[in-house]
Design a protein that fits this description.
Two copies of one chain form a homodimer. The first copy, chain A, is mostly helical. Chain A contains seven helices and two strands. Chain A has helices at about 10-20, 30-35, 50-60, 90-100, 110-120, 125-160, 165-195; strands spanning about 65, 85-90. A two-stranded antiparallel ribbon of chain A has the order 1-2. Chains A and B meet through helix 1, helix 4, helix 5, helix 6 and helix 7 of A and helix 1, helix 4, helix 5, helix 6 and helix 7 of B. Chain B binds a DNA duplex (28 and 28 nucleotides) through helix 2 and helix 3.
Chain lengths: ~200, ~200
Amino acid sequence: MTKIIKKENKTQYAILGILSLDTSKPMSGYDIRKTMANSTQYFWQESNGQLYPTLSKLVLNKEIKITQPNKDSNKNLANNKNKITYAITNTGKKKLTQWLLKEADYYTHRSELLLKVFFGQHVDPAVSIKHIQSRLKSCQDQLIIFESIASETAKLVAKKKQPLYFLLTVNAGIKLIQAEINWCEESLSLIKANKK
Amino acid sequence: MTKIIKKENKTQYAILGILSLDTSKPMSGYDIRKTMANSTQYFWQESNGQLYPTLSKLVLNKEIKITQPNKDSNKNLANNKNKITYAITNTGKKKLTQWLLKEADYYTHRSELLLKVFFGQHVDPAVSIKHIQSRLKSCQDQLIIFESIASETAKLVAKKKQPLYFLLTVNAGIKLIQAEINWCEESLSLIKANKK
DNA sequence: GAAGACATGTAATTTGTTACATGATTTT
DNA sequence: AAAATCATGTAACAAATTACATGTCTTC
């Protein structure tokens, strides 16, 4: 007899959270994905294969409900007949809050780059250098994007037009990217010095 | 007709890589897990459920082979009758090298902490503060461990007793943890300032 | 002889992506 | 009228963990 403890699916909380950002705006699955792409993308994403089944499940649990899209906003959008919009219910809000109070699970993450660097002794140093240079370039590109988002957001936060929390997550992205850039640069010189 | 492009399983390369670190030492599944726990743990881990089936698959593909454990080393260990030890073959070495030459895939990673912080407006600021303080503590503990590993390793690298590459991955861990600590501290003061 | 480390393995489940099918609406 | 975007959804696959079962060997 096997006793399997089910780990809770976190996708549902991500959806509940996005829907609760502005409760006056019902959102479709597509809207939720777009919102995530513009905000939580670098630390949380959902694919269609996860999103749509979870939306159905949340409706069954009465944590969200199907509503008419708000016509006042986005006049010329949201006219697609296929569109289904959802709003969070009080049950959903309670569930979201309870989750927010619990300690966050830590997600270990894999880095294929570091795995390849770790086994670097099996190939020419030029290979590791190439991998790190490639990552350095991606990080530098990403940093420019993050920094422009951060400066826009900081202005809105200063004017009290946006809560602080989005800015905090952007800051996290910036600091981690900067650390990675710093590591790439240091590692490149260490490998080059080691070759001689 | 569905055409599914199979993404390659990376577990096999992690195993091939570990077995190639010292080809004179055949290792068991247990040894491989131990080695990973002491080296790649923070950017790459494997569970038994992945490891053992992959070992069988690698044997079938003749990328590794079952060998007698090396009795010279670890005299008083490795006597367990159940123990099966593996060594990498030339086929396996070729496969490892080919993978090392390819560009590394980037793994997006999830952070439940950042997701909770992002939705911080729905709870009292004290909740977000508690989450961040808890993470700060974990990071500080982890940093101490990483730093002692790095200083040990740096000595061995300087004496040319160990390749540079392990040190590079430890450095990556240190820089990322430091960035996270830095973010926690900054975020705590931003939230506290924002409350007033 | 108990505890703890060593050692292998599997079943069930969870989690997530990829690639598609399908069609509406908007923009060029 | 073509292209791009908006929009929902599923089948197949891939990846990974969790919780066991089973047993050996070493140390106290």
